[in-house]
Amino acid sequence: MDIKVGIYRQDKKGYPKKSPYLPCCIFEEYPFDDKRTDGTNEVYSSLRRLLKLLDLDAENFNTKRWNPLGSIIRPGETVLLKPNLVKHFNEQGDIRSLITHGSLIRAVTDYVYIALKGNGRIIIADGPMDDADFEKVVLISGMDRIRRFYKDTAGFDLEIYDLRRERVIKENEKIIRRIKLKGDPLGYTVVDLGNMSEFKKPNGDRTMSCPYSALRGSECRADIMSLHHNAEKDEYLISNTFLKADVVINLPKMKTHKRSGVTLSLKNLVGVTGDRNWLPHYSDDNCGCGHKTDPGKTFPGIIKNTVKYIKPLRDSLRQFVGVTKETMRSGNWYGNDIIWRTVLDLWRIGSYADKNGVIRKDKQRKSFVIVDGITGGEGDGPLNPRPKKSNVLIAGIDEAVVDIVTSRIMGFDPFKIPLLRRFLPAPDINCVSNVKAWNRKLSDFKGRCLNFKPHYGWKRHIEAGSGVKKQDL
User: Fold this and answer.
1) Which residue ranges make up each domain of the chain?
2) Are residues 444 and 437 in contact, defined by beta-carbon separation less than 8 angstroms?
3) CB burial of residue 17 (10 Å; 0-12, 13-18, 19+)
4) Whole-angstrom Cα distance, residue 208 to residue 220?
5) Which of 79, 163, 258, 374 lies at 20 to 30 Å from 202 by C-alpha?
6) Ordered mean pLDDT values, 10 residues apiece, the chain (473 residues)
7) What is the enclosing helix (H) or strand (E) of 153?
């Protein structure tokens, strides 16, 4: 396991506004004859400095030969860029806190292209929420213009795919229409983890606390869930574009999450599936399972039970204490015992499933993670976060290690996040940064760093130094 993580904080705030997000200046390694620049694009130079912090191809830095991703990517390979493109709007108003920004996607694409030396495939793909308008996300992010730039400038076909099989149209949170999509052009593979699934681990706190019949996915479809998760199997519908990629560049947004605490590179793997109804997210409210404590006895549960019939009071509480519909839904708190299992299953598939979906002993594809924290999302994540202008990019080889560091940078304690706690204790992680307080071992970090506000259901539990005892975890 690589335990070195780079953290770069840029001087100027924010993202450039104009796609295709040209670099702020022409660097020695820039692969195109087009010499136009965008002086407002500090994200491009920030990524460059981040890769330098990690000593990638250090001997060739500032020369035409500099190829920072060359140790990961070889000419002729297929490289998948997996951003977070979860939805086309944010009810809080700022989509920059919701999805991976196009300026980072563009800069990463350039360095992938350098590593391929123009020979290979670059695919940008995600499977967003079932009601997301993927075409709008492509336009909002500027990926359409990035694709056009590559075609016009280099004659290179940048491929962009929506990995979902179906999109839904909703009114007042109710599905009124279903639209069949083209989906993954390579199709899908059903991967059954069987006894390797986290839903079947028999020991300690890994023992699932509810019956399979209580598991629910994105649409609460018990009929679909029971077909794919039961005593005999735990199976997932995985994108073949993902499985057949030689390299996966994971580009998550730095955000809080109502069910998993944070959504970073591990949680970003949800988007490589073709149907979210196959993904257990929580347990049915009516069965009272799936939680280590009865949620009705927690403060959020008491509030829910007290005010669910008193709309005026409920609306006031939403304004002042954050008791929203999302907060009240099952599993939106630190006691969710389901979602971390799903994400770890997807991580196992992403790491060890071969191109045909067969689980092997050795890692099957190369990976690299770059977290977009220029504008992060705090509070009611992952779909309605408030913008948090953090101005950081974080990168490394290992998804879990990067997520552990990023959660700590956000101001959270990774030991208090069930998904990340499964990878702890780990060898001390060496962080390299242009910020003195972060240029040290992770164990030497002090305070709450960026001080992200957690989702309401995680408040006063997840924060670094919040005082939660280990026996309560």
Assistant:
1) 4-291+331-472, 292-330
2) no
3) exposed
4) 19
5) 258
6) 86 93 98 96 98 98 98 99 96 92 99 98 98 98 98 98 97 93 98 96 68 88 93 97 99 98 99 97 60 44 46 43 48 92 98 98 98 98 96 98 98 97 89 98 96 96 72 40
7) helix 143-154
